[in-house]
Specification:
- The protein is an alpha/beta fold.
- The chain folds into 2 domains: 190 residues, no CATH class; 91 residues, no CATH class.
- It has 11 helices and 8 strands.
- The strands form 2 sheets. Strands 1, 2, 3, 5, 7 and 8 form a 6-stranded mixed sheet that branches. A two-stranded antiparallel sheet has the order 4-6.
- Strand 7 and strand 8 form a beta hairpin.
- Helix 2 packs across helix 5.
- The longest helix is centred in the middle third of the chain and has 24 residues.
- It is globular and about 80 Å long.
- The chain binds iron/sulfur cluster.
- The site of iron/sulfur cluster has 12 residues, from helix 6 and helix 8.
Length: 315
């Protein structure tokens, strides 16, 4: 069996074999960083769930409704919104008809030469961050303001509509890495998320990781990903469907609860018979940031992150 880091993802992208989603992982910095920082693993099990493309039906606006001579609505029109229960039945049928559209796993490895090149990238990005801090220089990158299909959290600040002190939009995080509570470290931490933020836009890194100003309202894509993640954490600890479904009951939107329930129900059906030995769940790590040219450890930063799981898998 191969010992692997496990990483869960939810996405709206096509995840079928050969899709761009998988090709992009060749250069994925999180894969490289986690494999470089975790001792004794051969690769990463990338465990992906695709978010449902189907949406709850809405009632046809009253002014647009058309009726047959028999007095019934035209077939494609509706008197009322679809209920969460009705949507649940429809979503479950869609998942059952095409599970490969919703669930995919792949083992990602890095050759020694790829690990060295990724380590060099990491070292250079860390050096750029250190230089930005030394000079207090955080250039903006307008090319990133609309990346990933949504507007940057700090758009209103950079556009001059508000300031980063605006307490109605931003709060101050207790630590730069709230996702790594209680982690013990000697030096300031660099997570993959932090480095991705700096790569995307140094100004974004300043707001998010130096000033620790975080948006008060979290985008739906992130809250739904967090909900699924909560369910997967329980599933990987127990392989208990009932406990997994119980973990996703708190979401304010009942349709999000239905989406999460049905996705996790399908996940259980798809993967529960796989031969996997789970060694750890939600395992944080701190590792030295190494200069790949000299082998010396950075005196400025340590690398940190959290593996969703470590497992032994039959490849
Ligand atoms: S922080 Fe950077 S990416 Fe975000 S809005 Fe400002 S310039 Fe754009």
């Amino acid at each position: 069996m191969a010992r692997l880091v496990v990483e869960h993802k939810t996405t709206s992208s096509d995840i079928t074999p050969g899709s761009t989603y998988w090709r992009k992982l060749t250069l994925d910095t999180q894969v490289s960083q986690y494999l470089g920082a975790t001792e004794g693993v051969e690769g990463m099990l990338y465990d992906v769930i695709r978010k449902p493309g189907i949406k709850p039906f809405k009632a046809t606006p009253a002014e647009s409704r058309k009726y047959t001579k028999a007095g019934t609505l035209y077939a494609a029109q509706r008197e009322r919104d679809e209920t969460p229960e009705e949507f649940s039945v429809r979503l479950r049928a869609d998942i059952s008809e095409g599970p490969n559209k919703y669930y995919a796993r792949g083992i990602i490895v890095r050759l020694p030469s790829e690990r060295t090149e990724a380590a060099r990238d990491t070292w250079l990005v860390a050096g750029s961050i250190r230089e930005s801090m030394r000079l207090d220089a955080w250039p903006r990158n307008p090319g990133s303001c609309d990346a990933y299909g949504r507007t940057c959290d700090y758009w209103a600040v950079c556009a001059g509509e508000t300031t980063i002190e605006d307490a109605t939009r931003f709060r101050t995080a207790e630590t730069p890495h709230e996702e790594l509570p209680g982690i013990v470290h000697r030096l300031p931490l660099l997570s993959n998320s932090a480095m991705s933020a700096y790569r995307a836009c140094p100004r974004k890194y300043l707001y998010s990781y130096v000033q620790r100003r975080r948006p008060i309202v979290t985008p739906h894509a992130l809250t739904f990903g967090t909900l699924i993640h909560a369910g997967l954490e329980v599933w990987w600890s127990s392989v208990d469907l009932g406990a997994t479904l119980a973990a996703v009951q708190g979401a304010p939107d009942p349709f999000d609860v239905v989406r999460a329930e049905e996705l996790l129900r399908g996940y259980h059906a798809r993967w529960s018979e796989e031969e996997i030995r789970v060694l750890a769940v939600e395992k944080p790590f701190v590792a030295p940031l190494i200069n790949p040219e000299t082998g010396a450890a950075s005196r400025t930063f340590e690398l940190a992150g959290k593996c969703d799981a470590i497992a032994e898998v039959n490849p």
